[in-house]
Design brief:
Blueprint (H helix, E strand, L loop, with lengths): L1 H29 L9 H34 L1 H4 L6 H8 L1 H24 L4 H29 L1 H7 L13 H29 L5 H45 L14 H30 L1 H10 L4 E15 L1 H7 L2 H21 L3 E6 L2 E6 L8 H19 L4 E18 L2 E7 L1 H13 L6 E4 H6 L2 H4 L2 E7 L8 E6 L7
Parallel strand pairs: 4-6
Antiparallel strand pairs: 1-3, 1-4, 2-3, 4-5, 6-8, 7-8
């Protein structure tokens, strides 16, 4: 903080030095010597004495007032705490408060020197009034534009909590107008004054007028280039930061924020961008949680088509897997161990099913209902379901030999959609294939194969996948009137 304060202080000193230099050049070299000035030596001695005495008083006074204002405004930084809303606004408006002090010093100088020179010459008093006023404008404008960049770290701290509802500093339009005033307006006023003097007075020689115009033009170019550079940086830096942030967002990086370090509408834009990112992160978290609850395909389907109760008929395949002996596990093992075992079991189910273009529709205690072909259509849904059943059986045997699970697969016409009430519903599939898959799972638990599929599913699979299965016996499944012909992976014995 001390480093920022010193850099800021020297920026203000440099701005006032440049303003004083402008006044000196105008009075000593550019403006014509006024006619009829009596006691020129007395005027010069009085002016020099007043300048030295005034500087000895004005400079320490301005320094003390500025330091006191600094400490009072930024006490929250010294105390290492977040600022209140009032302290935040005072911090954001500190550059304006500082320039009010500077303007007061220059205004006092205008009054003092105009009053001292008025008794000797009205023309001289007018020249002093005009040049000191222009010098004060230059000093204040340069101080504000030059210090804006020095104070950005403090502005960022003040705005870290929240941005104000409206700008607290001059915005883009005001800064642009201020830059024009320094780089063009002051110079044009000076040239106009010289031109008017040359029209009404003959004391401007051709050479003197040429020198005046050249010096004023060079002064305008230098000040204009400096102020335009400051303006360009004050606008380009935050815009570049926003542009880089937008590019990262386009690449999918939402875990970022731009630094809010401006009290104008640029700061509001920075804060608005951060709020937009926070909203996107919240939306992404909700989508992630939603996807984990119901599946990514359901999320995409809901985003594309909206959410409403009801469903649509379509061809789909259903895989049901149920853990055997879960009640005994709950009795003989610690609950935390049982939960860990179930999570490991379901992790294998999710991995296998998703790798075969299916999704787990719901977990039912120690069982899982998996769907292929809904909500997104899949012409090879049954093929993928059968391949998933074989792979799941093999992986459970290899990775979780301490558990036993039955797997059943069926396929056919189902209704897929949102079921429930307007305020609480879930996406699921309903139809005879769901019931048949559940009953096949019960039957599969008592077989060495651990996986059974219906002949209806086998008929809908590709020839290559169907060749991996062999037809077994017919069974009358519980709750169904029709007889179901089952099949097992080829090389396995079908249940009797």
């Amino acid at each position: 903080m001390e480093r920022i304060r010193l850099r800021y202080a020297w920026t203000i000193v440099a701005a006032n030095f440049l303003g004083g230099l402008v006044v000196f050049c105008l009075l000593m070299f550019l403006l014509p010597d006024p006619r009829g000035v009596r006691n020129t030596g007395t005027v010069q001695l009085l002016s020099v004495s007043a300048f030295l005495a005034g500087s000895a008083v004005a400079f320490p006074t301005a320094w003390i007032l500025s330091a006191r204002k600094w400490r009072a405004t930024l006490s929250w930084v010294a105390e290492d705490r977040p600022p209140s809303a009032a302290e935040r606004d005072l911090t954001l408006r500190f550059p304006l408060a500082q320039e009010k002090i500077v303007a007061g010093v220059w205004l006092a100088g205008v009054v003092l020197f105009t009053t001292l020179t008025a008794p000797f010459s009205a023309e001289l008093a007018g020249n002093v009034f005009e040049t000191l006023l222009l010098g004060g404008i230059v000093s204040c404008a340069l101080g504000f534009l030059g210090s804006e960049r020095q104070l950005r770290p403090l502005m960022a701290l003040a705005l870290a909590g929240s941005a104000p509802p409206k700008p607290r500093l001059p915005g883009v339009a005001a800064r642009t107008l201020l830059t024009w005033t320094l780089g063009t307006g002051v110079v044009l006023i000076g040239m106009a004054t010289v031109g008017l003097g040359a029209l009404h007075e003959s004391r401007f020689t051709r050479e003197r007028l040429s020198v005046v115009l050249i010096v004023m033009s060079v002064l305008g170019l230098v000040i204009g280039a400096f102020t335009m550079s400051r303006l360009a940086h004050s606008l380009a830096d935050p815009i570049d930061a926003l542009r880089r942030a937008v590019r990262r967002v386009e690449q999918g990086d939402l875990d970022q924020e731009v630094t809010v370090d401006d009290g104008s509408e640029i700061g509001l834009l920075q804060a608005g961008f951060n709020q937009m990112l926070a909203g996107l992160r919240e939306r992404e978290r909700i989508r992630d949680l939603f996807g984990r609850q119901v599946g990514e395909d359901v999320v995409r389907h809901a985003l594309e088509r909206g959410v409403e109760l009801g469903g649509e008929a379509r061809e789909a395949a259903v895989l049901f897997v149920d853990l055997q002996g879960s009640t005994r596990l709950a009795e003989t093992r610690d609950p935390a161990e049982v939960v860990a075992l179930l999570n490991g079991f379901f992790a294998v189910v999710v991995d296998v099913v998703s790798s075969h273009r299916g999704w787990v529709n719901k977990f039912e205690g120690d069982a899982a209902l998996c769907v292929f072909g809904a909500p997104l259509p899949d012409p090879d849904a049954t093929t993928h379901a059968l391949a998933s059943a074989r792979t799941l059986r093999d992986r459970l045997r290899a990775e979780m030999d301490e558990i036993r699970a039955g797997i059943g697969v069926s396929a056919g016409r189902v209704v897929a959609g949102n079921v429930g009430a307007a305020k609480r519903f879930e996406y699921t599939v309903i139809g005879d294939p769901v019931n048949e898959a559940a009953r096949l799972t019960e039957l599969a638990k008592g077989t060495p194969e651990r996986v059974l599929v219906s002949s209806a599913a086998l008929e809908r699979a590709s020839a290559a996948e169907a060749a991996r299965w062999q037809i077994g016996e017919e069974h009358e499944l519980r709750g169904r009137s029709a007889v179901t012909t089952v099949a097992v992976p080829r090389g396995e014995r079908a249940p009797a």
